[in-house]
Amino acid sequence: MRELREISTDERLIGIRQIQPDRFVYPDRFLDVVASDQLPDITPWSWLCQYEDDLYFWAETVAQQYPTRSLVPFAKHQDTDDVFCFDGDDRSGNPSVLIIHTFASPGTEYRGQWTSFDVWWEEMEEHRAAWLAEQGED
Asked: Which residues of 47-74 are buried (b: 16+ CB within 10 A; e: fewer)?
């Protein structure tokens, strides 16, 4: 089994820049999260820029599986193949967040979206709180 190596803030920032499409602008709130000393815990999701090679693996995976889409992955659900991606064609600095179900046939990968990272963040926090409460019941 591969040992996960948590990467530094500088390595995270380099990684997201390396997968960034031309003229794509990350949302300010996302950049603030990535630049923080400690990434916030978003379990049952995980940040793709937290561990060495995860970001590159998922960026390559979605690019190979869905070559007609411009996807910028940033998080993954730990229990599914759902990857959360920015719409890489957006140049506004406030791109939509798409749920992409990897390893699905092209045309069936789209599972939904949020209008922005801020909206995704608020809903993620609500889902996380419910998930944590459910874990406490077990």
From this structure: bbbbbbebbeebbebbeebbeebbbbbb
Output the CA–CA distances (angstroms, integers) from residue 73 to 43, 52, 53, 130, in the order listed: 17, 15, 13, 24
- The helix (H) or strand (E) run that includes residue 124 is helix 117-137
In the chain, the amino acid numbered 97 is V
State pLDDT tens for residues 38-85: 999 999 999 999 998 999 999 999 999 999 999 999 999 998 999 999
**Separation of alpha carbons 43 and 69, rounded Å:** 27
Rounded CA-CA distance 36/33 in Å is 5
Structure tokens at 58: 């998922």
pTM for the whole structure:
0.92
